[in-house]
Every structure is written in C-alpha cells, then in structure tokens.
Amino acid sequence: MPDFRSVGVLTRILLIVNACGLLAALVRSEGMNDAAEQFARIAVTLEPALLASAAALYILSHLLSRLPYWAGLSLATAMAAAFAALTGAAAANAGLGTAATNAAWHALYAVLLSTVLAAYFDLRQRAFSPALSEARLQALQARIRPHFLFNSLNAVLMLIRRDPKRAEAALEDLAELFRNLMADNRELVTLADEIALTRQYLGLEHLRLGERLRVDWDIDPSAEQALVPPMMLQPLVENAVYHGIEPGLDPGTVSIRAVREGDRLLLELANPYHAEHQRRQGNRMALANIGERLALHFDVDAALDTAIEDERFRIRIRMPLRRSGAKKTASAR
Amino acid sequence: MIAPLRILIVDDEPPARERLRELLGDLGSELPTQVVAEAASGPQAIALLSECAPEVALVDIHMPVMNGIEFARHAQRLDHAPAVVFITAHDQYAVQAFEVNAIDYLLKPVRAARLATALRRAVSGPGPGREQLAKADPGPRSHFSIAERGRITLVPAAEVLFLKAELKYVTLRTRTRDYLIEDSLSQLEHELRDTFIRVHRNCLVARAAIRGVENLRGATGAEEGESRWGVVLDGHAEPIVVSRRQWPAVKALIKR
Q1: pLDDT tens, position by position, B113-138
Q2: Are B16 and A210 an interchain contact pair (Cβ–Cβ within 8 Å)?
Q3: Residues A21-36: pLDDT tens digits?
Q4: Mean pLDDT score of chain A, rounded to an integer?
Q5: Is the confidence at residue B165, as pLDDT, over 90?
C-alpha cells in the first residue's frame, strides 16, 4: 500500500485521475472547443469525489497501512466509490439524469480508476524493489573510506603498546562500525541509533586527529526517535571530517544539528570549507549517494541542499518525521 | 660502527609518527637509525631541513596544506636533499600516480620489514627524479620554493601577486618583495589556471589580486601588440600592461 501522506503519491493520484478524465473528455468530444466543455462537465463530478477520496486516504493512511493489502485496497476502493456515488447523486439533483443510475455509474468509474491506480502503484513498487536492494549495495560501497580504515588501524597499532585498554576499545568500535556497515541496510533506523554509531566513529577519528577535530552536537530530544535511512549520518560526518578537518592545520569544528520542524525532521551539518582542497578533490560521491537513498525511501518528500556560508560548508536535509512504531516507507509495503 | 641513519618523519597525525618511531626502534639492531626531527606538515618539514640535515624523510602523502609529493618537489631544490620514502594509507590517486611513474611507496599500516627495505633502497640509489614527481602530482602547488644559500624559502601561492618572465628567470612578486624562480611560465600557466590569468606573453596575474583595469592611453612606450589597458593590482602600485591578444579574456574576468 502506498504511503498516502507522501506528496509524491498524492500528486501522482491527482495527475493520473485527471489524465483519465481528460482522456474520457477527448473520446466523447467532436472538436477542441467541445473537449474543453466535456472536460468541464466531467470535472464537476470528478474533482469533488477525487479530492474527498484523497483527503480520506490521507487521514486513514495509518489504518490502511496496517490492514492486509487486499482489505486495504477494498476499503480504499469502496471509499472512492462512495464519494463518487454521492457526487453523482448530487449532480442528479441538480437536474442531470436520475439519482440512482447516476450514482451507480459514478461508483463504477471510481472502482475502475481505483483499480488502475492500484495496478500502477503495484508496478511502480515492483520496479523500485531492486533499487532498494541496490540502495543497500550502494550503502556498502560508498560508506567508510578505506583511507579511514587503514589510518584507524595504524592508530590502533600505535596504541597497542602504550595503552592496550584504549586499543581494545578502539578495535571494538571499529568492529561495531563494520557490523553496521555490512548489515541489511534496507530498513529505516532511529536517529538515536545513527547518532550512537557516529559517536563511535568520531571516537576513532579523535585517536588520530586529536585536538584538530572538534564536534558540536545539537540534537533535539524529540527528534531522536525519528526514522532515517541507515548509514546516513556517519557518512555525512565522515565527509565533513575528510573535507573539513583533515585539510586544515588548525582545529576545526564539525557541527551536527537535528531538530523537529512540525512534521518534518531537519538535519544540518556544517564543517570548515577549504576551497583549495575542494579544487583538488571535488568528491561529491557520498552526497550523491545519500541524495539517491533519500529519494528511494522518501520520494519527493525529502530534500537535500548544500551551501557555503561564512567559510563553512553546510548540508541541510529535510525529511518527513516518521517515528518507530509506524514503520512504513513510500516504496516498501 | 656506522653512524645511525638520520631520519625525518613528516605526518600530520601524531599516532602515525609515533608508530613509525616505534618501528624504527624495533629495527634498531639491524639498521640503526636516529629520528632527527618530526614535522606535522610540509612547510614545517621544509623549515627543519637545513638544520637537521636528514638523510631520509618518511613522508605521508595525504597532509593538509601541502601534500607529501609537493614536499618532495620542494625538498629537491637542496643540494643535499634527503631521500624521500612515501607512505600512504589509501589514496587511490596517489597510488595510481606512483605506479605509473615507478615511484616506490609504503602502505599504512607499515610493516617493519618493508620499512627496512625501503630505507636501504632509499640511501643506496637515486630516488624519483624531478620529472617523475611532477607527473605524479600535476595539481596546483600550494607554495613556490626558492633555494638560497642551502635553505629553502617557501612562498604561499596565495600571496603571489604576479609572475613575470624576464630573460632566463621568472620573477615572482608578493606584496613585500621579489623572488627569482626557475619554473617555466607556460608550465605554471597550465598548473595554476584556476587561480592565475595570463595578461601578457610574459606575465601571469593572480585573479584574486585584480582590482580593476585602467586606460593607459597616453602612457609612453606602448609596444606593438599591447592594448591600451593595464590591470590594477591590490598591493602593487603600477598597473600591468595587458596584451591585445589577452585583453578579451581579461575583460571577461573583470565583467564577472
């Protein structure tokens, strides 16, 4: 069942149904002028029913997603048919045909359109499921630079003689990072989990960068249970360290902020910007990868944008605030 | 007994330097070494070279401001330049460049046995030549280097106002003084194309230093091929004559 709270899904429903209405108008009409008139006539009954159905789907989306697929589909179709019958009957009262036949005809249209939409969303989901497993693969490929792995191992090797306890802790953190990296990364995870993982990663970076790496956390407690794509925060922070801290001789700060903005989650990262380094490296791989995975999980509801402000490179990610418990993604049933 | 090999360690990460010192200590019985200095960056290492006189420099590739290869290129200007052993954790591009140009390197984490081999090889044979290094690091340099009386002076590329070819040498001008460098202007033009612009057959100007243009009509001695325009630079009193050929490019830059 698609997520009826998603802007992408609702837009697609409105577009497809209106396209069908337009098609019907064209079939019925005899010329261009006539087509507009026919469409207007169809719209009188189509639009109220469509909008009412869309609103009902939006409101009932949680209920629908919890029902078995066929039950949910039947309920949604029945709702659409009921609204269509009502507008059909209302149109009849306005003097266009008899109430009973009109209501029946409109209900039939609604059932047909619902079937078309259900088939479309089903096909679309099938088309994107390989992409989701692809997302897991991408997560594996682009995550954690080998550069970081070997430098960390090198730092741990140094610790083994001087501070065996710290060396042990560092290897445990490294193991944990890689366990997460190799996990099945398809399901959304809580932001709190991502933060814990990122802290372990930063602990390892502190070993080798020491004073040069400063981190400023600002996490809204009410955002911690938000669901986010797995392995999203750590690669962003790794990017910030690689492009923002390593190229500088002086200490630099990576700031990480997460806040709620109504029913959306805003994630913001900033790091010092080094123009010369960017010219040499120009590595936007990690960002592109995260943008793609956001789109896979949230469709058009998520946005990623970057800016350079006050000599700092800033990334802002906005996505729908989903909480653990109501685990649903736009493209996974 | 032979004198221990004098070693300079250059790496921005303290644990990495410490690890190398440990390894050198382990190798002590078969290959005596003495760490004469440690540096956290290329410029710092260059400043230490003349007084510490290391025989071998162990240099990390991936460092802030100046990478390891650029350090080696500057260090080579000395008559008694140290042999350089490059070390890298995993820098795909550097490794590719080394392979293509047959430059030896060590991978992090470094093994004691490999380190010993590299040290022996470094002191016995000639290291990578100037050409090899230049090809391995074609990116824009962070500094210019001038060898004077056994010392190397570094001038950050960002402080350069313009580079002017005169007879055999190229004059490099900062706000405070002139230097003579040995690089060729056309090679510099290619390497620094993002930050410098050619305004004349014999002159490259830092884009960031340009304040505007001035009409030089009436000025005496305009040569053939020169436009009547000059670029005005921040921190330099005299405008620099723009050639007729380069005027369109300069004009486009000013308009932006």
Answers
A1: 999 999 998 888 777 888 888 888 87
A2: no
A3: 888 888 888 877 788 8
A4: 83
A5: yes
Domain positions in chain B: 5-136, 160-255
Q: Do A157 and B19 touch (CB under 8 A)?
A: yes
Which pLDDT value is given to residue A213?
Answer: 95
CATH number of A143-320: 3.30.565.10
What distance separates the 2 farthest-apart alpha carbons in chain A? 93
Q: Which two tokens stand for residue B202?
A: 């014999």
Domain ranges for chain A: 7-133, 143-320
With beta carbons less than 8 A apart as the criterion, state whether A296 and A8 touch: no
Q: Which of A154, A209, A276 is closest, CB to CB, to B89?
A: A154
| Residue of B12, B22, B89 lying closest to A150 (CB–CB) | B89
Is the confidence at residue B140, as pLDDT, over 60? yes
The minimum CA-CA distance between A179 and chain B, rounded to whole Å, is 21
- Please state the pTM of the whole predicted model: 0.73
Q: Which CATH number fits domain B5-136: 3.40.50.2300, 3.50.50.60, 3.40.50.300, 1.10.260.40?
A: 3.40.50.2300
Q: Are A238 and A264 in contact (CB under 8 A)?
A: no
- CB within 8 Å of A71: residues ≥ 6 apart: none
Coil, helix or strand for B65? Answer: coil
Q: Which among B18, B108, B140 has CB closest to A151?
A: B108
CATH among 3.30.70.100, 2.40.50.1020, 3.40.920.10, 3.40.50.2000 for B160-255: 2.40.50.1020
Write out the H or E segment, with its range, that includes residue A284. none
Tell me the shortest Cα–Cα distance from A161 to chain B, in angstroms. Answer: 9
Q: How far apart are the first and last CA of chain B?
A: 67
Mean pLDDT, residues B211-217 = 85
Chain B residues in contact with A279 (beta carbon < 8 A): 140, 194
| Nearest CA distance, B90 vs chain A (angstrom) | 5
Question: Using CA atoms, how far apart are residues B137 and B88, in angstroms rounded to an integer?
Answer: 14
Tell me which chain B residues have a C-beta less than 8 angstroms from the C-beta of A145: 90
- Confirm whether the ipTM is greater than 0.85: no
